[in-house]
Design a protein that fits this description.
single chain, mainly alpha, 14 helices, about 0% strand, flat, disordered C terminus
Length: about 290
């Protein structure tokens, strides 16, 4: 009797696991299908792109990437300029926002400020503002200060938008470090000042949190279209702007659009894969406490 119960429970466990893995597989396929379609479209000719039914087996061509990068095939815009603009804006805004957000989160957790919870909520409230409500005032301000279509304008905006979320993520991670204060105090007893303790003791402990938060901050500026579309024209335009300019008289150039989307996706995928272990540790540790 006991053996039958064990076999029944084992069979039920196997069925549950199969069902879970099947559901996860289906969700993964649904999630990845748009990405797969975009990559395949970037490798097709124009005729293959519009073929009905869709062509799944074909000889890949990199003509779309050549058109985008070198401006051939009637696709004429400074791709390299847009790429470097995106890279400069993304890295600069991420570095600045991480420095400020880390210091702010440390202060909110480390010091017993009287209204620190209210301050934290006020910081988060800034992120709750929809970007569409900010673009017109920002456009007017940057026009008046002659910052329209400049990289510093984009860096300033993306930094301001990244700081609230980054502060809250880092605040949660600081709160989860139970031994952090003890190690810091021990270091200060040995003669290290607060800044030295912060750099030598605290920062190494929060490396996973820094990696996870930095990726989110970088993605915000790297993928954004709305703000860059309103605040730039040509000199400071970024890669998402290039994706919005693939419409010509003959229609939308789907192959080139897929190539641009794939190029925009590649740096984020590479960075995420490199920082994968830190990303998982940072998200799981920072989500425990807030």
């Amino acid at each position: 009797m006991t053996q039958r119960k064990n076999q029944s429970s084992r069979a039920k466990k196997i069925r549950d696991e199969v069902g879970i893995y099947a559901a996860l597989t289906i969700l993964a396929i649904i999630s990845m299908f748009p990405v797969l379609w975009m990559v395949l479209t970037s490798l097709k000719t124009r005729l293959q792109t519009f073929a009905i039914p869709p062509v799944w087996w074909f000889k890949p061509t990199f003509d779309n990437y050549r058109d985008v990068i070198f401006g051939t095939g009637g696709f004429d815009f400074p791709f390299k300029l847009y790429f470097w603009n995106s890279l400069i804006v993304g890295i600069t805004s991420t570095v600045i926002s991480m420095i400020l957000a880390t210091i702010a989160a440390y202060a909110l957790v480390r010091f017993r400020l009287r209204y620190r919870n209210a301050i934290a909520m006020l910081i988060l409230a800034v992120r709750m503002l929809p970007p569409i409500a900010l673009v017109v005032p920002l456009f007017i301000i940057f026009k008046d200060f002659h910052l329209y279509d400049t990289i510093p304008a984009l860096v300033l905006v993306y930094t301001a938008l990244s700081i609230p979320l980054a502060t809250w993520l880092m605040r949660g991670f600081f709160s989860d470090q139970g031994t952090m204060l003890e190690l810091e105090e021990s270091s200060m007893v040995d003669g290290t000042n607060r800044l030295g303790a912060f750099i030598k003791i605290i920062l190494p402990l929060i490396t996973p949190g820094l990696a996870a938060t930095a990726i989110f901050s970088f993605i915000l500026s790297w993928n954004d279209l709305l703000i860059a579309l309103v605040l730039t024209a040509s000199k400071a335009a970024t890669l998402p702007i290039a994706a919005s300019r693939v419409r010509v008289e003959e229609g939308i150039m789907w192959g080139q659009l897929g190539a641009i989307g794939t190029i925009v996706m590649i740096p984020v995928v590479i960075i995420t894969m490199i920082a994968q272990k830190y990303l998982v540790r940072g998200l799981t540790a920072g989500a425990v406490k807030g």
